[in-house]
Design brief:
Layout (H helix, E strand, L loop, with lengths): L2 H5 L2 H22 L5 H24 L1 H8 L11 H25 L7 H24 L29 H16 L6 H25 L3 H7 L10
Amino acid sequence: MNSHQRTITPRVFAQYLVAVVVIPFLPLLISWRWDWWEGWVFAIIYIMGFAISRMLAARLHPDLIAERARLLQHEDTKPWDKVLAPLVLLGIGLIPMFAGLDALFGWSSTFSVPLKVLALIIILAGYALGSYALIENRFFSVMVRLQTERGHHVVSSGPYRWMRHPGYAGALWSNLAVPLFLDSAWAFLPAAFLTIVLVIRTSLEDRTLQDELTGYRDYARRVRYRLLPGVW
């Protein structure tokens, strides 16, 4: 059995099914509004962004896909991240779920077209930044841990020249814009929850890397900002 076959286990297949099919189609499935063009655009962007970034990452760093597929199976995962990582995934799933419920019950008024266009641009920019980070960093694990068996070292190229955690930044930007694009004020509740969790996780991960990863403190002195250049 080759490494690819070992990576695609039933558990991993189920995870990808949820990530690539269920979550992006939640607004359409819950609202049952199959003429909702914003819901279709959201699903297509989500799926294409996921698929293209993973294909490029797999071509450049085949071992990264296996690393990411293991999720909570790593014994050296930081204890706090065993709580925070699932909360991040929960927040990402709750945003389209709330948007679908909002569309079903008509809780929110629609946003203006210029706002929705701006939201779409932010979503695309966030996906592009997150994908760029994933492709550039072969240590972009789902879980926070020091990957000594993979020769973990500081990555300072690509988007890591501008901020220390561009993957989180891209996720934060895109998910904050989704409620606007899907006309759901209520979806800002899980978006705010996700923001809080991501900020906490970024802070703890950055502190861990400074304490445990050789060269990261010097890198942090050169690249000052974690998520938002000029702010934090």
